[in-house]
Amino acid sequence: MSDTYWQNIGATLDRHDPHCQGVIVLGLNGTVSSITESFLVATKQPWVKGFAIGRTIFSEPATQWFAREIDDTSAMTQMRRTYRSLIDAWDAACEQSRGA
Known about the structure:
By secondary structure, the chain is mainly alpha-helical. It has one domain. The chain has 4 helices and 2 strands, in the order αβαβαα. It has helices at residues 3-16, 32-42, 55-66, 72-97, and strands at 23-26, 48-52. The mean pLDDT is 93.
């Protein structure tokens, strides 16, 4: 997603929804890498307030768990690791967008 994409969203919100409190970035089952790239662009925009990344966190571990390829602990560890990496990526993108 480009700067232009997010600027168009902002212009649309400004024009049609002056009461909007913000936008969250959805992961849409993307990879950690693609979502991290999206964060780098999205956090530059004033309307972007956070993210909701469910399937990216649990899809692969859940598939493995249901197939009995991994146990509960492994599934939780994988989900925790992915979630933590996305939080770190979000924090880094926010810092970069602020010029820190």
